[in-house]
Amino acid sequence: MKNLTKNYKPRHYVPLFTSLLLAMVMGCNQKPNDKVPWSLLFDGETLEGWTQKGGNAQFRVRDGSIVGTTVHDTPNSFLTSEKMYDDFILELEYKVNPTMNSGIQIRSNSFPHYRDGRVHGYQVEIDPSERAWSGGIYDEARRGWLFPLDDHPKAQNAFKQNEWNHYRIEALGDTLKTWVNNIPAAHLIDDKTSRGFIALQVHSIGDDQIEGTEIMWRNIKILTDSLHNYSKVSPIPPIITKNHLTVDEKKNGWKLLWDGETTQDWRGARLDTFPDKGWVMENGELTVLSSGGAEAAAGGDIVTIDTYGDFELKVDFKLTEGANSGIKYYVDTDLNKGPGSSIGLEYQILDDARHPDAKLGSHEGSRTLASLYDLIQADPNKPVHPIGTWNSAYILSKDNHVEHWLNGVKVLAYERKSEPYRKLVSESKYEKWPNFGEGEKGHILLQDHGDRVSFKNIKIRPITKAE
């Protein structure tokens, strides 16, 4: 038979409707005579290009497949690609024991500073249980469920028990999409991590589970070039995490402190309303503008309308070069009616390498990033993301025990109202404020220190006395 497409050249007068119809039928932008340039991640014979991390489950090659086998008394085990990937399209097949739980890690990482090297990142779930969330997206060792499948029955029914199942996973920019046996499953827009390894998971098992159960993977292939030519459209409405609560956050009582668009829940620290200058809200980012480094000289600090006692607080922030700002808590806006910022305990936000404040303070290093400003230095080995990229702050305050975290790592802890704490205050710039930082409740504050700094994903979980 002759190859009728070999010398085919597209004609400019092909009707637009025909072109659109062809794209819809194919489900992507790939031309009908294109050969998809897949690269193999598994050669079918060896584990070359892969490294094991985490637990001690067994991984071996058998009959052209990677076989993972459970063992007792070990944490989750991961066979990770030695190569790192940002944007890609991944396809593979797997067959899993019905009693197991597993997953495919994408854009995942393992750092010594993060939980002693624990593998963390996006996981495309493999779930043969009655819950049937195969193809959903979980954030391993971080935020929990991001895209469960309880509202997607077609995707839940796509998985085939005791048979080989096919996954397609697309990671393009901040958009993650999955298909199970060609059925759309998940559609997530999330910008937490842009690059990492791919990994095959063998989940840990309890004492009541049988050791030696297996999961198998084969035909593992990846695309990394010209992805727009091959990306498929998903009919599933996306879940967007930016300035939204995740599934697990809603379940656990978190509250969104900024909706990404309006001034709701905030006012000026010395105003009844939100400042009419000095702050902008664009592209889901709340940004204090530069005014040349003068403290509270433009729009001024902003505070939550509500006050909080015990709490957990999460804030993503992005510094510009040489910038200074802060997140304050237990703020009393009735204090300090004069020049400068409102008074409260401060999680310092600073470009340590370029701002002179990093070398100042009542105690050495106490004005560096993530420190308790002017009182306690954050761990000097803290993980810091580069200027112009996002960092994540977390503050826990419960029963006067307070912790500061940066990018998932605890960098300091102290006891409010304790004698060591009061001694530090007496030696600091705050000694003139009676009972500084000891209020039962206070506002959360974002500081205007005259430098451009952006915030997003501002969330709080009030802690009740019963907890």
Explain this structure to me?
- This protein has 467 residues and is mainly β.
- It has 2 domains: 33-240, Exo-inulinase, domain 1 (Jelly Rolls, Sandwich), CATH 2.60.120.560; 247-462, Exo-inulinase, domain 1 (Jelly Rolls, Sandwich), CATH 2.60.120.560.
- It is built from 4 helices and 29 strands.
- Strands 1, 3, 4, 6, 11, 12, 13, 15 and 16 form a 9-stranded mixed beta sheet that branches. Strands 17, 19, 20, 22, 25, 26, 27 and 29 form an 8-stranded antiparallel beta sheet that branches. The protein has a 7-stranded antiparallel beta sheet with strand order 2-5-14-7-8-9-10, with no helix packed on it.
- The longest helix has 11 residues, at 16-26.
- Mean pLDDT is 91; it is low at 1-33.
Total tally of structural domains: 2
CATH domain topology of the largest domain: Jelly Rolls
The chain-level structural class is: mainly beta
Net shape: elongated
Strand proportion, as a percent range, falls in 35-45%
CATH superfamily descriptor of the largest domain:
Exo-inulinase, domain 1
* Number of DSSP helical runs: 4
CATH class of the largest domain equals Mainly Beta
Pick out its properties.
4 helices; 467 residues; mainly beta; single chain; 8-stranded antiparallel sheet; Jelly Rolls
Task: Write a concise synopsis of the structure shown.
With 467 residues, the protein is mostly beta strands. It has helices spanning 16-26, 153-156, 247-251, 419-426; strands at residues 39-40, 50-54, 58-62, 65-69, 77-81, 88-96, 102-109, 120-126, 137-140, 144-147, 165-172, 175-180, 183-189, 197-202, 214-223, 239-240, 255-256, 266-268, 279-282, 285-288, 302-304, 311-319, 324-332, 343-350, 390-398, 401-406, 409-415, 443-446, 453-462.
